[in-house]
Design brief:
Radius of gyration: 44 Å
Largest sheet: 4 strands, mixed
CATH architecture of the largest domain: 6 Propeller
Helix content: 25-40%
CATH topology of the largest domain: Neuraminidase
Structural class: alpha+beta
CATH superfamily of the largest domain: DNA gyrase/topoisomerase IV, subunit A, C-terminal
Strand order of the largest sheet: 14-9-8-17
């Protein structure tokens, strides 16, 4: 290594070199690549593309030219980077779904909203769009500063004159080093109106401007959900705007509803969106969609989502909003370069920067035009002198041996400038005709008037701002259009429940875990002892185990035999036909394998003065505050501690002051005060409620709170009503008294319910047959009896449950008194399925039904 080369080596600390190099790189990315200028809303690559097309004469009225030519010009003259980066930028400026007002008029395949890429630049053609030509207007009148290009051969503008507020109307996005920008597009008419307001009243407040600019206006339309994010973005420069697709709910020819998506959120890929919807259906997160089609064409987007029968369209739509990009968020960051430095601005500051830029452009243009007019006036005054002294001028020119001598002679004779003398020497003889002389004088008058006008404009800022407003109004009339994006109030506090009408529903759950809800009018009131109609289609060895009435807005607290509890809203249960099997409850709840439902309690509020009373198969009871069960996780929670040889059979809601009756399968029953069971925690085991004999088990629990009678039914369809007072109150833990005489004919006890004369009862058999009848038709008889025939059974069938439809809508379940139950007892309800009347189907079983069988 020579001494000379050693002297050229500079010793620097590595960290200092890294810091300075990274800062230089960062500033290069910030200023030269990623961030737009607040004045024209363009990044350098976009500005260079538009300027190169302008220089090549590719105006809106000129023929298209290959995109490859444009890309080559840009790379070779102004932007020494990769061709793909330049072409991608050109393509985006031509896409109607990317820019609110496209800057490039493209011909050929420039991509699609489905995410399809544009064709190669050798196949497409382009020219400037009309909107872009207004960004470049007057650029040749010294309206903006120019700087040398990368090799100092040419000059390029540092900013475009931009007669339109491009940054706001088209928006911008980019990621720099340590910062990012994401400015949404807006409606030109609204932005221009705000500019006019600031021109007329510079002290206009931000709140007043936000009344004019309602919010972003996306090229793909859609809906903006709420204005809080918009106001935050306009006030602070940052905010979150919630975008939603625009969807209509229509009824198809088959009577089923369907959702038609016609507009999607900005920058959402339609193909990926459809894949997301299909994924929700495939994963069974949305279960009410039967078909999905993309019927989009050149006229616009049309995605058809066919729904299953009885699906609630608004709930499905809300599920899609939550699980797909049908709802998307636009994170607004209003950051742009101001004098070469990045700044986050509020709406008013951004508008003021544009107006100041336009004012400067108008001032520079006026100064340029003033210079041109003054120069022209000066020339015309010299020509006027020549015309007035034409003979002398001709004599001087003819007598001069050369042009230089003639120029000096003319200047000396008429006191002319060199510019005027040259104009006279270059004047054609045709200008000496009478008509041309008149035109010369007229032109001189016009030029003088124009010069005076320009002088007045330069002397008045208000006049210049008026020009800015007038020019903007002209362009708004040319390019302005209606708003595409609708802004709706934020209803994010509304849940799916708020969209559901409050209606009573019959809930059925089969032994195999199929659940559904049915309108109670489907079941026809029948005489006691009738055969009934099919209430639920079940597979072999399956039967209906639970049936009760609840409101669509109720919580269902679902308790399993293992002692766990799950939440479910009634409206979340699929609405089905009377004979349909329903839906597996495991698809609605995250139940553990092997768990079966023991009881379902309806609740509205989880108050501390309400209690849940638990009963197990081995005779244990437990009382816990309802408030302990208000926070349920998706996997459920432990509701009671169950022993290995025991299982939960029933859970009731109580106010803490009632009596509890436990009935056993072998016909025993015990009645004790609820106060005998002290309140314990959620995971406690409980205490003894009844002492059982060998092989006996508890089959039912009643919390006596309605002043009614005790209905006991056996698996052979025999049963009775007995006065609750017939069961003397004892201390808990005893053996109880006889509830019903159990014989081979009567069968063993299957269900026990508290009923009143106003109740409607549903008797459910193992084969899924449901018999509906009034409790008033069942006579109240003594406790120590066998009972009467309640329902006729097919051979091999047996009674498994009795449901009492007593819960009126809109009241606390713990305070129900049955006064509204008569609303369910409609006479001769029509069978929607058109089956034959079943009132007399079991008439043979009515003989002697009112006489005591024991």
């Amino acid at each position: 290594m020579t001494t000379e080369s050693i002297e050229r080596v500079e010793q620097r600390p590595l960290e200092e070199e890294m810091r300075e190099s990274f800062i230089d790189y960062s500033m290069s990315v910030i200023v030269q690549r990623a961030l737009p200028d607040v004045r024209d809303g363009l990044k350098p690559v976009h500005r260079r593309i538009l300027y190169a097309m302008h220089e090549a004469g590719l105006g809106p009225t000129r023929p298209y030219r290959k995109s490859a030519t444009v890309v080559g010009d840009v790379i070779g003259k102004y932007h020494p980077h990769g061709d793909s980066a330049v072409y991608d930028s050109l393509v985006r400026m031509a896409q109607e779904f990317s820019l609110r007002y496209p800057l490039v008029d493209g011909q050929g395949n420039f991509g699609s909203v489905d995410g399809d890429s544009a064709a190669a630049y050798r196949y497409t053609e382009a020219r400037l769009a009309g909107f872009a030509s207004e960004l470049l207007g007057d650029i040749d009148k010294d309206t903006v500063a120019h700087t040398p290009n990368f090799d100092d051969r040419l000059q390029e503008p540092t900013v475009l004159p931009s007669a339109l507020p491009n940054l706001l109307v088209n928006g911008s996005s980019g990621i720099a080093v340590g910062m990012a920008t994401n400015i949404p597009p807006h409606n030109l008419r609204e932005v221009a109106a705000a500019c006019h307001r600031l021109i007329e009243a510079p002290d206009t407040t931000l709140d007043e401007l936000m009344e004019i600019i309602r919010g972003p206006d996306f090229p793909t339309g859609g809906t903006i959900f709420g204005g809080a994010g918009i106001r935050e973005a306009y006030r602070l420069g940052r905010g979150r705007v919630v975008m939603r697709a625009k969807a209509d709910i229509e009824e198809g020819r088959d009577g089923r509803d369907r959702i038609i998506v016609r507009e999607i959120p900005f920058m959402v890929n339609k193909t990926r969106l459809i894949e997301q919807i299909a994924g929700l259906v495939r994963d069974k997160r949305v279960t009410d969609i039967s078909d999905l089609r993309d019927e989009s064409d050149r006229d616009g987007i049309r995605v058809v989502i066919e729904l299953k029968r009885d699906a609630v369209p608004q709930i499905v739509l809300n599920q899609l909003f939550k699980g797909t990009q049908l709802q998307s968020t636009f994170g607004v960051i209003m950051l742009a370069l101001v004098n070469g430095e990045p700044q986050v601005m509020d709406l008013k500051t951004m508008l003021r920067h544009f107006l100041e830029h336009r004012h400067e452009v108008v001032e520079r243009r006026t100064r340029f035009e003033f210079g041109v007019a003054k120069d022209r006036e000066h020339v015309l005054e010299g020509l006027k002198v020549a015309v007035d002294h034409i003979d002398e001028v001709i004599r001087i020119i003819r007598a001069s041996p050369e042009t230089e001598v003639a120029r000096e002679e003319l200047r000396a004779a008429f006191d002319l400038s060199e510019r005027q003398a040259d104009a006279i020497l270059n004047m054609r003889l045709a200008r000496l005709t009478g008509l041309e002389i008149e035109k010369l004088e007229e032109e001189l008058e016009k030029v003088r008037a124009r010069r005076e006008e320009l002088e007045a404009i330069l002397a008045s800022r208000d006049r210049r701002m008026e020009i800015v407003g007038d020019e903007l109004s002209t362009l708004v009339g040319k390019f302005g259009d209606e708003r595409r994006t609708q802004i709706v109030p934020d209803t994010s506090d509304l849940t799916d429940e708020d969209l559901i009408a409050e209606e009573r529903m019959v809930i059925t759950v089969s032994h195999s875990g199929y659940i559904k809800r049915i309108e109670p009018q489907v079941y026809r009131a029948q005489r006691r002892g009738g055969r009934g109609i099919a209430g639920m289609g079940t597979k072999e060895k399956d039967w209906v185990e639970h049936l009760f009435l609840a409101s669509t807005h109720d919580y269902l607290l679902i308790f399993t035999t293992a002692g766990r509890m799950y939440w479910l809203k009634v409206y979340q249960i699929p609405l089905a036909r009377r004979t349909a099997r329903g839906k597996p409850i495991v698809n609605l709840l995250r139940m553990a394998k092997g768990e079966k439902i023991a009881s379902i309690v309806r609740a509205r509020e989880f108050s501390a003065d309400r209690f849940l009373i638990f009963a197990t198969r081995r005779g244990l009871v437990k009382k816990t505050s309802l408030a302990a069960y208000r926070n349920v996780r998706a996997p459920g929670l432990r509701a009671i501690n169950i022993l290995e040889d025991d299982r939960l059979i029933d859970v009731k809601l109580s106010d803490g002051s009632n009596d509890v009756l436990l009935a056993t399968r072998r016909g025993r029953a015990i009645r004790f005060s609820e106060g005998d069971v002290r309140e314990v925690g959620r995971v406690a085991q409980g205490v003894r409620g009844i002492r059982l004999k060998e092989e006996d088990t508890v089959v039912g629990m009643v919390v006596a709170r309605r002043g009614g009678s005790l209905l006991t039914a056996t698996d052979q369809g025999i049963g009775k009503r007995s006065d609750v007072d017939d069961y003397r109150k004892t201390r808990r833990g005893g053996q109880g008294v006889i509830n019903l005489k159990v014989t081979a004919t009567s069968g063993q006890v299957a269900a026990t319910r508290e009923v009143t004369d106003d109740d409607e009862l549903m008797f459910v058999t193992r084969n899924g047959v449901i018999n509906r009848q009034s409790a008033e038709g069942i006579r109240v008889i003594g406790r120590n009896t066998q009972g009467v025939r309640l329902v006729s059974l097919d051979e091999g069938d047996e009674l498994v449950d009795v449901a009492s439809l007593i819960d009126p809508i809109g009241t606390d379940p713990a305070a129900d008194n049955g006064t509204e139950a008569d609303a369910l007892a409609d006479d001769a309800l029509a069978d929607a399925e058109g089956e034959a009347d079943a009132n007399g189907a079991g008439a043979s079983g009515d003989a002697g039904a009112d006489s005591d069988a024991g």
